[in-house]
Amino acid sequence: MSFERAADLIREADAVLVCAGAGMGVDSGLPDFRGNQGFWRAYPPYARLGLAFEELADPVHFADDPELAWGFYGHRTHLYRDTVPHEGFAILRSWGARVFTSNVDGQFQKAGFPEVAEVHGSIHHLQCTLPCRSDIWPATQDITIDPDTMRAVGDLPTCPSCGSLARPNILMFGDSHWVPDRSQAQLDALNTWRRGRKVTVVEIGAGQAVPTVRRYAELAGAATGALIRINPREPEIRHNRGVSLPMGALEALTAIQDRL
Q1: Of 120, 124, 177, 239, which one is the catalytic site residue?
Q2: Distances (CA, A) of 53 to 36, 205, 225
Q3: Is 86 a catalytic residue?
Q4: Whole-prediction pTM value?
Q5: What is the tens place of the pLDDT at every residue in 185-238?
Q6: DSSP 8-state symbol, 221
């Protein structure tokens, strides 16, 4: 493994940029949604219903079946609130890293990162389903879930402006009503921070199925080739411009830290 080269890239950089996908949370015990079988192992009731992740992560359900929609997102909210970030997050913090992520789980903020660009939004923030306006506000309401049906029970979050149903401020599949303002402001701040810095990019757990994170990581590391790709399934780097570590986040970050 090229742990020594990865450590050199960290040492030589003016700054470290972490580009994280869903694989970042696996070592914290968060489920791997890779493929329907992985999703259904995490959520057996949806296997019985024959519902795939892509079908549930569709904003149409907030209009057609809000209890189903909030059962899915409410359960995930509870899961993310209860999860403790693994030690790899602390290692990245010790490197002074900034973060670009497609994850909506809020784990980086929970681990103490003050600057995070959440390009697909956050499950811990809400917006109006219409939307009646571009307001985004923190999600504080607890959603009760029936564990047998995975449907929400009782009152659901509503928009404080118009009283319509609220939804997570997350970019879903086929989503034309997502309010991007919060995420765009975070991304603008990150892009401003990157200018003029010699950045080493540490990409973690970002697959090719939804390539948002991989593309940003490759763009950010293009000038210098200072890209460390940590991915147990898809670790390849085009033209070998960077360091490929085919393993999970915590194992790789610990090995690099041991060499710093």
Answers
A1: 120
A2: 7, 18, 34
A3: no
A4: 0.94
A5: 999 999 999 998 999 999 999 988 888 999 999 999 987 889 999 999 999 998
A6: T
